[in-house]
Amino acid sequence: MTQLFTNLRLIDPEAGTVTEGALVLSQGRITEILRQPPASTDSFAPEDIVDCGGKYLAPGIIDIGVKVCEPGERHKESYRSAGMAAAAGGVTTMVTRPDTDPAIDSPEVLEFVTRRANEVAPVHVVPMAALTKGRAGREMTEIGFLMDAGAAAFTDCDRVVTDTKVFSRALSYARSLGALVIAHPQEPILSQGAAATSGKFASLRGLPAVSPMAERMGLDRDIALIEMTGAKYHADQITTARALPALARAKANGLDITAGVGIHHLTLNALDVADYRTFFKLKPPLRDEEDRVAVAEAVASGLIDIICSMHTPQDEESKRLPFEEAASGAVGLETLLPAAMRLVHADVMDLPTLWRALSLNPAKRLGLPGGRIAVGAPADLVLFDPNAPFVMDRATLRSKSRNTPFDGMRMQGKVLATFVAGNCVYKAN
Question: Domain locations in the chain?
Fold first, then answer.
């Protein structure tokens, strides 16, 4: 089947351009990029012509760090519900975390989740595996076997491997296999039990807090180990201004390091917690406005490479608790695009720069084929209107858990349709 997408504005994150034109798709791939609409559409069946109405078409979002609670906690999120939420949010590839119960630390569990995801999810699912057995930080997993079974990267998610010898061995082993290690840069003792970032707000609210320096200390340790082992490393979330100079130095020194940030840390700050609103309780905690601005500018300059949703479903029972006791995390698959539009509307960055962080860079880092508008690239696309206003209502979310901090907020940016391998998997009403 050959399809024609016409009357569109095409976002090319590689070239850094937005151009008007048309696209021809065939067998799930982009076969032609036209700068002008074709003179005749007679060769296309009417149902194969998609009029995009002058809206923006971009590569589908590749979201690193999605938590799907299968196996173990399907009542919070399943591959089916996460896949539906991803499609509605313009996410065409979910890169899933191994912090399940049990953890994805053996080829058998990895094969189970891969099979389950392929059966029910309408979008691509790329699983990651645990770096250490049971994410306990004591013994590394069989990285080679897990790579053969399809693991895209290795991470213990929000748990820090405190045993430096175990971590350095895992990094050395990963390097010999060309595997990517994703870590959570935090000094674990300092940040233990913290529910907020230290400062005036946390003091007034009486919340246990952690200094932003904990992130810098964790990152400094990891950088030293990368320098020692030469491994491929990705910091899952850089959320403080203090950590940015260390990251810049590591990149300047030629280390194979990239960094990401969750959308909530780019668009919200510590004051949003207000009167102990647990939907705003995240890990790491929300930072001061100065940190948020510095991190957003780091994404715009390319110092921070990737934006992700850090989708962490939590049910009502684990959120409707006193702030200290409540579970950390927020869902983000459906709110990622409209929340990211805030950065564009605030003139922090333009659309191609944003898409470089949402799609192109994650694809490059994980060696995935998507993230590009090019002949031969997969036809994983999102059609959206960056200016469409709406009020976020969490009751409309497709996730099983609806712990979004954006509930009731005015937002701009609506996904109109999502295509995976040229097939429409979501269309807005």
Answer: 60-366
CA torsion 152-330-283-99 (nearest 10°) is -40
- Among 142, 117, 139, 140, which residue's Cα sits nearest to residue 127? 117
Tens-place pLDDT, residues 50-77: 888 999 999 999 999 899 998 889 999 9
Q: Whole-prediction pTM value?
A: 0.94
Q: Where are the beta strands (DSSP E) in 13-76?
A: 17-26, 29-34, 49-51, 56-59, 61-66
Place of tokens 């406005």: 289
Cβ atoms 113, 146 nearer than 8 A: no
Summarize pLDDT for 25-59 with one digit per residue, the tens. 999 999 999 988 777 777 888 888 888 899 999 99
Give the closest residue to 287 by CA, choosing from 305, 302, 272.
272
Provide the sign of the torsion angle of the four alpha carbons 358, 364, 367, 370, taken in this order: positive
Tell me which of 1.10.1670.10, 3.20.20.140, 1.10.3720.10, 3.40.50.10810 is the CATH number of domain 60-366: 3.20.20.140
Tokens of 119: 């059966």
Q: How far apart, in whole angstroms, are the C-alpha atoms of residue 100 and residue 393?
A: 28
**Strand-by-strand arrangement of the 232-235 sheet:** 154-155, 180-183, 232-235, 257-262, 306-308
State how far Cα 118 lies from the chain centre: 20
Q: Output the CA torsion sign for 112, 114, 119, 123.
A: positive
pLDDT at res. 38? 78
Cβ neighbours around 94 below 10 Å, total: 30
CA neighbor of 228 nearest in space, from 288, 165, 153: 165
